[in-house]
Design brief:
Layout: E1 2-3, E2 11-12, E3 18-23, H1 34-51, E4 54-60, E5 64-70, H2 77-95, H3 117-141, E6 158-161, H4 165-176, H5 178-181
Helix pairs in contact: 1-2, 1-3, 2-3
Length: 202
């Protein structure tokens, strides 16, 4: 078992399932913009490919996200969340015009050339989608908008290790249907109910 060095003193073990909550800085409702939600889902797909974790459930709300994740043996939950948060931040700020370049992968220890062809094709498709989101954003908000602040996540995140079957069932339901708690529409798109193709079996 490995102890994480940050102030929260997280402990990691293999094969654990984590319930994660990550919030935007100052609870800003960035995810009222559909293409920001779409980008986050694309980031999760890419992160699954690179960081090799199982995704069991998720829900994106206006100012936070819940995940139910099982890391693989190679990357612990800290590495997984660091990857998702960092790359989404850079790319969403590219969409809003705060960055001049997008960052599809840019990991020091993992180069695009080391990925199989499927992974390389996925990155190419990802770049096209991010550029399309940029065009949609400019059409809606203009090229020099400042009304939406530069994106930041709140520092760190909340995690809970699933302890047993009952705990799993509770957090699975809580994650999947959390949009109802926040009075979002019954047909809210950004929950794992609508993305079974990227989920792994519990």
């Amino acid at each position: 078992m490995k102890k994480h060095r940050d102030s929260q003193k997280r402990y990691y073990d293999t094969n654990e399932v984590y319930f994660i909550t990550v919030k935007t800085y100052n609870d800003y409702p960035y995810f009222k913009e559909n293409f920001f939600c779409d980008l986050l889902i694309e980031e999760i797909k890419l992160s699954k490919k690179i960081k090799k974790f199982n995704l069991l459930a998720f829900c994106i709300l206006y100012d936070h996200m819940h995940l139910l994740v099982q890391p693989g043996e190679e990357y612990n939950i800290s590495k997984v969340m660091q990857f998702i948060k960092r790359h989404f931040t850079r790319n969403v700020n590219y969409i809003m015009g705060y960055n001049n370049e997008l960052d599809p992968l840019h990991e020091g220890d993992i180069g695009q050339c080391r990925l199989p062809k499927e992974g390389q094709d996925m990155i190419k498709e990802f770049i096209i989608k991010v550029k399309n989101y940029r065009n949609q954003f400019v059409q809606k908000h203009g090229i020099n908008q400042t009304s939406i602040p530069k994106f930041r996540w709140q520092k760190s995140y909340y995690d809970h290790i699933i302890r047993n079957e009952r705990d799993m069932e509770y957090h699975y339901e809580y994650t999947t249907y959390n949009f109802q708690k926040h009075n979002l529409p019954d047909d809210w798109q950004y929950t794992s109910l609508n993305y079974e193709d990227i989920l792994d079996k519990i």
